[in-house]
């Protein structure tokens, strides 16, 4: 399903623009991974592994950047929507737990 066809739901976790930006980044990562697959399929000489490793590292870094963008977007959105300080703290604690669990 293309981005233009994908229905973006407005919610309290992330704004529509934040979601659109993340989906765009992930589409680029997907393209990088398809490129890595082609490089692996065409690898013929030992030196080809350097190119594959470089592209894998780039894809991994791009995916890590998506993860950071997801969490920072959620922090901004959820803290802006908090009704009071306690709710903002609870939201921050929940996001910190996600960071601790997955980073």
TrEMBL record:
<dbReference type="InterPro" id="IPR038390">
    <property type="entry name" value="Metal_Tscrpt_repr_sf"/>
</dbReference>
<dbReference type="InterPro" id="IPR003735">
    <property type="entry name" value="Metal_Tscrpt_repr"/>
</dbReference>
<comment type="similarity">
    <text>Belongs to the FrmR/RcnR family.</text>
</comment>
<dbReference type="GO" id="GO:0046872">
    <property type="term" value="F:metal ion binding"/>
</dbReference>
<protein>
    <submittedName>
        <fullName>Transcriptional regulator</fullName>
    </submittedName>
</protein>
<dbReference type="GO" id="GO:0045892">
    <property type="term" value="P:negative regulation of DNA-templated transcription"/>
</dbReference>
<dbReference type="Pfam" id="PF02583">
    <property type="entry name" value="Trns_repr_metal"/>
</dbReference>
<dbReference type="GO" id="GO:0003677">
    <property type="term" value="F:DNA binding"/>
</dbReference>
């Amino acid at each position: 399903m293309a981005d233009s066809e994908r229905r973006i739901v407005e919610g309290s976790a992330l704004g529509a623009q934040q979601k659109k930006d993340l989906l765009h980044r992930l589409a680029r990562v997907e393209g990088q991974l398809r490129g890595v697959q082609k490089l692996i399929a065409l690898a013929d000489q030992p030196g080809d592994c350097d190119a594959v490793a470089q592209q894998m590292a780039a894809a991994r870094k791009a995916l890590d950047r998506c993860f950071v963008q997801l969490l920072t977007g959620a922090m901004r959105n959820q803290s802006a929507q908090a009704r009071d300080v306690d709710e903002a703290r609870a939201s921050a604690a929940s996001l910190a737990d996600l960071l601790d669990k997955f980073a």
